[in-house]
Amino acid sequence: MLSVRDLTVSVEDRVILRDLDFSVERGETVVLFGPNGSGKTSLLKTLMGFPGYRVETGRILFMGQDVTGLTVDRRARMGMGIAFQRPPTVRGVRLGEMLALFPGREAELSPILSRLNLTGLESRELNLGFSGGEIKRSELAQLLAQRPSFIMFDEPDSGVDLVSIHLVGEVIGELLEKDQPLDRRNRAGIIISHTGHILDYVGAERGYVLLGGSLLCSGDPEVLIDDIRTMGYEECVQCLKK
């Protein structure tokens, strides 16, 4: 579904991602680990086509099509979606108005709001005065309305309480069709996580560690997060030197 080939990216003439090469198959969920400043969020923004992230070399293929030069809205229309760690407050646009932008979803809006405990917030400006958990659930409501085929989540398990993380994890699992066998899923995704808590609800087929803008390790995500908790990220560097 997604293929990244020899990708090097710069921001304001500073290289932030180097020679990335990986793919995400249909039905797969990939989890991305790494310390702050390692380039995880920059990678998601590059994949989504955000301005300011200049692709110096390499290509991004989505559903077999080269999307490297396409705008954010073009990629979204093709089926790519993203949930931010810290989404912006959008004054003048109410949550209900945002959800109503997706054609053919009108009958689903009330159930979506109810499912995510957002009933009553649809008349408020997007994310204005929302709690951390409400912001996360607002992002999920928009994804449920959009129904993209490839979804990127930037730290969905950060800044939410125990009740919210259970609901957030449950809905992410639904979006990624985790109750279906791998060969029957039509969606795929990338999840950034510092703690690995989201894996308790969603699981993942593969994990990567991003350090200094480069992918250093890959493998079973549960094993990776256990090693990171025990030995830290530098163990990945040491393993590669052996």
Give the topology.
Elements: E1 2-11, E2 14-24, E3 29-33, H1 40-48, E4 54-62, E5 65-66, H2 72-78, E6 80-83, E7 90-94, H3 95-99, H4 109-115, E8 125-126, H5 132-146, E9 150-154, H6 162-175, E10 188-192, E11 206-211, E12 214-219, H7 221-231, H8 234-241
Parallel strand pairs: 3-10, 3-11, 6-9, 9-10
Antiparallel strand pairs: 1-2, 1-4, 4-5, 7-8, 11-12
Helix pairs in contact: 5-6
Please sum up the structure shown.
This protein has helices spanning 40-48, 72-78, 95-99, 109-115, 132-146, 162-175, 221-231, 234-241; strands spanning 2-11, 14-24, 29-33, 54-62, 65-66, 80-83, 90-94, 125-126, 150-154, 188-192, 206-211, 214-219. By secondary structure, the chain is an alpha/beta fold.
Give a description of the structure.
This protein is 31% helix and 29% strand. It is globular and about 50 Å long. The protein is of the alpha/beta class. The protein has a single domain, classed as Rossmann fold (3-Layer(aba) Sandwich), CATH 3.40.50.300. The strands form 3 sheets. It has a 6-stranded mixed sheet with strand order 6-9-10-3-11-12, with helices on both faces. It contains 8 helices and 12 strands. The longest helix has 15 residues. The model has no long low-confidence stretch (mean pLDDT 90). Strand 9, helix 6 and strand 10 form a beta-alpha-beta unit.
